[in-house]
Amino acid sequence: MRDHGIMTALTDDDVVMDAWIARLQSAAQAGTTLDLAADLDPDSPDRDPTFADNWGAERHLPAAALRAVLIDRTLRVDPRGLRINGARITTALDLENVHFDYPLYLTQCRIEGLADLSGTTFKELRLTGSHVKTLALDGTSIGSGVFADAGFCALGEVRAPGARIGGQLTLRGATLANPGGVALNLDSAVIDGDFIADQGFSATGRVSAHGVKITGPLILRGATFVNPDGEALNLDNAAIDGSVFANDGFSATGRVSAHGARIGGQLTLRGGTFVNPGGEALVLDNAAIDGSVFANDGFSATGRVSAHSARIGGQLALRDSTFTNSSDVALSLDNIVVGSGVIANGMSVSGQARAHSATLSGQLELRGATLINPDGVALSLEHATVGGHVFADQGFSAEGRVRAHSATFSGQLVLRGATLINPDGVALSLDSATITTLILTPNQVLGTVSLVRTTITDLKIETDSLSDAPLIATGWVINDLHGTLRSDRDAAAHWLRTYPSGRSFTAQPWHALAAVYDRNGQPADARRLRYLAANEITKHAPPSSKPLRWIYRVIAGHGYYPLIASAWLLFALVLGIALVSFNRADFVPTNPAAARAAASAYDAINPGSELPHAITANEDCANYPDYPCFNPVNFALTNVIPAANSNLRPDWTTSSQASVLVTWGLPVLRISSWIFTAILLAGVTGLLRKT
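== Oxidoreductase ==
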């Protein structure tokens, strides 16, 4: 009886298997759908594979029956292929290396074991609404499309490395969940059509498409990728002929990488959210994008966004985007090449934004942008080249250092109304930059402005907003000047004096501005600025050299005002006249005998007059009318002013008994006058050294 029972059981299984094979063959031959849920209401929950545990045995499809039909070469299959709906496969589905040149539909089914379709060949594969545990499509070749959409759910890995899909791959609305592992693997797959994973697509675990080739667009609108401890999405070295759309609610928690990817159209990340705190949120290093990149209008990244050495054929749009990676690099565009402009109006960055050695063919717009990195560099454009204008105005704000060392700006660099705050360091550093036009009219600058070796063709500036901004401008070159400094040399001098304490003084910035004044027909302003620069040199000179510089300043205005020497020459003459006038007794006739003879002749005519014991300039000229009368002015002029001396023998001379004041005073005045005269002549002829 037992043996008979066993034989009966085996026969029953065979009957069941044969029945399923017959049903499947019939459906394949007719091209109709074997719908195991046909008797259910359209809204019945029993149509949902989530509740497949409640399905009856009549919906339990043996995996072996399906394989038997698919490998039956004698079966005449309708071009519409084999279509199954609402089946439950409770065992592993082994279709490895099956070649079925027709479509295979397994819709709203549940496969509870491994669904191994590795190496298979299908005309089309449709898994719409089905639930699987693990799906293997390694090396699979699909002549048309693959549809795992509209509620498709995988609770393990879906893998298709090296797969070739002749049409589109659609995962619209699918759910892939493999926390801590790989949710979807498309490495080196070839998709000859669109890749659509949008409208509620969700992946928990890593999604990898390294080296994938997609001839159409990659559409990820509204998709959600979650792998917080690793990569959420990997598109490294992907080749996508169309555009990539990861916008309109796209969200990724974990690293998203497209290193070395090639995108034939545009990359749209508008409104997308990328979250990987403390790590890289989005990597586009070495990517080549033929169109534009739109990461704007609500785009948000927490973690580093990097596009090092990326190539963008169109514009880079970052308008109203948010980048957050505090105290580290939030946005890195080093060595990027952008064929058009970078539009970042209203952008907000917490952390450093940098674009070292970037090449931007168009303009860079930062209007209303907010950059915050108080303990470091807020914006760095070192060695960058911008072919158009740079607009950091209309509310642009940077807390931290703004740096553009050795950058080249072919258009205007506009800082009108900007706010630059770095009170303990350099707020704006344009060292060694080359700028066609610098419009430096900020709203507020707290911190130093560094223009060391900066070359500026046209500087437009208002110093009122720079009152709290010390200037370092050693080696700067300015061709033209507009604004406050053009018309107010005192304002220019005031700003130049604000260089930070502790730095060695250099007069070059003063002379550079003075040269601009000279070229603009303002020689008086140029001379004044150079004179003030010389005063600053004296202030910072070693103590041993200061006295001579003070004297040179007083006598000749450091060579810039030589007419001061004429005033000193006149002062020497007046002093000489006073010295002679108040010391007349110290001057005697050059020819005493002639003077006494003249006095004797006067005495003979006027008896009773008393002849002086010795004739001096203090005597009344009436006592010797025939001898030239002493004139203090003429004597001082002759003996003090070099040019007033003549070859005629003077009538009066200094007495050998003269006081020390006269004996030494007149020679000192004469020597001083010679010095004043030499300085005056050198200044008039242009030979006077100016320093």
